[in-house]
Amino acid sequence: MELLSGADMLIRSLQDEGIEYIYGYPGGAALHIYDALFRQDKVKHILVRHEQAAVHMADGYARATGLPGTVLVTSGPGATNTITGIATAFMDSIPLVVLCGQVASTLIGEDAFQETDMIGVSRPVVKHNLSVRHPEEIPGIIRKAYYIAATGRPGPVVVDIPKDMTTPNERYEYVFPKKVKLRSYNPAIRGHAGQIKKAVDMLMAAKRPIIYAGGGVILGKATDQLTELVRMLGYPITNTLMGIGCYPASDKQHLGWLGMHGTYESNMAMHHSDLILCVGARFDDRVTNATEKFCPGARIVHIDIDPASISKTIDADVPIVGPVDAVLKEMITLVRESKETPDADAIAAWWKQIEEWRAFHGMRYETSPDVIKPQEVVEALCRLTNGEAFVTSDVGQHQMFAAQYYKFDKPNRWINSGGLGTMGFGLPAAMGVKLTHPDDDVLCITGEGSIQMNIQELSTCKQYNLPVKIINLNNQALGMVKQWQDMNYESRHAESYMGSLPDFIKLAEAYGHVGVRIDRKEDLEPKLKEVLAMKDDLVFVDIYVDRFEHVYPMQVARGSMKDMWLSKTERV
Amino acid sequence: MRRIISVLLENEPGALSRVVGLFSQRNYNIETLTVAPTEDETLSRLTVTTSGSDRVIEQITKQLNKLIEVVKLVDLTEGAHIERELMLVKLKATGSQRAEIKRTVDIFRGQIVDVTSSVYTVQLAGNSEKLDGFIQAIGTSGVLEVVRSGVSGIARGEKVLSL
Ligand SMILES: Cc1ncc(C[n+]2csc(CCOP(=O)(O)OP(=O)(O)O)c2C)c(N)n1
Ligand SMILES: [Mg+2]
């Protein structure tokens, strides 16, 4: 029998769970735990400079690896600082376990120093949260937390740990449960066979089908199955911003991503389709535009692990609740065995139509002889890294340009805050990726607004030697806000101008890194090449881009999917 | 449409706040809510009455089911069911009012459970409409205080909501 303190149990549980890295920041209520961390060397702790960044870092790690990320913080301000990070992960269904110190259970409710009801504060933005009521529960709670975070529709789980649950000299028997079983939580392990059959019949009969795939394909590790099914069928596929990489962007059947800033051909094909096979996506408002005008002629098959995502905003004709990989596998078998074949003439006519849309080149932009266009920067980066880099992003125009012009053929490489749209996500997320992918190119494509929301993490990068490349598409403005003001508020730029920007080169240098400025078009590619060759340095690349550029296509507000602006003057 | 959703919930601290939080967070309305432990002390039974379009109700049941602590639930209004609510009312009762109130209480099969020289306390059980009907019959001017338990419900026949 092994006797351990609560703090030691916690760390042992993390070891037994196979956790290699945790990201965090210490403080009073977590000090017993930090001491237990100190006395071992299996679980490595990364000390960030702000708790929000710890969560984004864990999140970046989770998105790149498909494994749950872990965070450790103290009570009160430490815990509340994690909320934006937790909400970011929640909206994008990212598995995280966030361990929060808490004041001693005897003090809870007394407004003790650094007491916050973290269970209450986090409740709306977690998949679940748990509090420790006895030290002996710790191994079971930790096991449960990871199980809930990583299974079904993944999400963040908060564990609240009062300080007296980790007291060093109070020891209890340590038993790490082999299995978790929860009578009230049983995610589906396969889809309904009858529904799957119905879906396949509809796919075979469709004349203008389209596959609409989302982040669920990546989270559900079903990219191979999706690719196989789509290739077998020969149908067009589009995906959401979160689904980028779920199907190779360079493939002919891929129409690009859809929605507010999606490609012309994707949005047109969706609108005119007669059958939408939705796989692990959720008909988000940034995709559908006005729901009452959404794809009037389409019947909808919707596969999702989360029943609540089905028929939430758009009614599904055939709902299929189940893990996407298992459901797609069954569909592949059925398609293979099916006596029916797709209507070749109809599908050929459909492709002909789509090719016309594609030839219209919705995603064109005007180049200029002297001003650097943000799109050009992303295209150059994609070329120079062979489309193989991990790219994290912040939120704004740069995010859209990155998603539009970097072509991802693989999943888990495009990492952005799609659901919550959290500025400040990019750098810490890139750090989480770089830590576990030291030999890969990790780019953080950001804006001068967003990067300043977690700029302090340059210090963490120094401490742990994380040579990410920060690509600052510096348009000297909160560009996306400014674009909306141009389009909807007669260019009244209320508070969207970022005057008094720091000298990012000196700033990078002050943190012990390298800074490179690019402000001449002819320098762009050669300098980027140099930067990418500096494998051991974090390089902050401050690129002066066109201050007046807008992101297009852009769906017309309250229109249908096919109503888009293609440039400042061209509306379809 | 008005619905009665019955939920078996893990009897754990915080579980109830998750249910209540879900309703406010997703902009669903709660008309009544009752909760108490069951014969199995690890479980609570919660009854919530709400209203909304079919889509909203479907979302409510799905979102409730997603809560980790929700073990099972049923929309009682989908089938034959019995609903009951308990009401305690303090009524002004003096002079001739006393006999009149007594008669009305009898008609509604209520009981006078406490008496003073000027006040009757009446206990009444039934569905919500019956309780509303009683208040209407008495007239609000005589009502000093009302406390209602909120709706509890159970399916008719052999159907049971259990593990
Ligand atoms: C934390 C947070 N605050 C505010 C916003 C609203 N917002 C969306 S994009 C944007 C501008 C971002 O500016 P910048 O990072 O410079 O990117 P750009 O659009 O200029 O490329 C703002 C303020 C947000 N998404 N996140
Ligand atoms: Mg900017």
Blueprint (SSEs and pairs):
The complex is a heterodimer of chains A (572) and B (163).
Chain A: E1 3-5, H1 6-16, E2 21-25, H2 31-38, E3 44-47, H3 51-65, E4 69-73, H4 77-80, H5 83-91, E5 96-102, H6 118-122, E6 128-131, H7 138-150, E7 156-162, E8 171-173, H8 193-205, E9 209-213, H9 215-219, H10 223-233, E10 237-239, E11 254-257, H11 264-272, E12 275-279, H12 285-288, E13 299-304, E14 318-321, H13 324-337, H14 344-359, H15 374-384, E15 390-393, H16 397-405, E16 414-415, H17 426-436, E17 442-446, H18 458-464, E18 469-474, H19 479-488, H20 504-510, E19 514-518, H21 524-533, E20 539-544, E21 554-555, E22 564-565
Parallel strand pairs in A: 2-3, 2-4, 4-5, 5-7, 6-7, 9-10, 9-12, 10-11, 12-13, 13-14, 15-16, 15-17, 17-18, 18-20, 19-20
Antiparallel strand pairs in A: 1-8, 21-22
Helix pairs in contact in A: 1-2, 1-7, 3-5, 3-17, 8-13, 10-13, 11-14, 15-16, 15-21
Chain B: E1 2-10, H1 15-25, E2 32-37, E3 43-51, H2 54-66, E4 70-75, E5 81-92, H3 97-107, E6 111-115, E7 119-126, H4 128-138, E8 143-148, E9 152-155
Subunit structure (chain B): Dimer of large and small chains.
Family (chain B): Belongs to the acetolactate synthase small subunit family.
Catalytic activity (chain B): 2 pyruvate + H(+) = (2S)-2-acetolactate + CO2
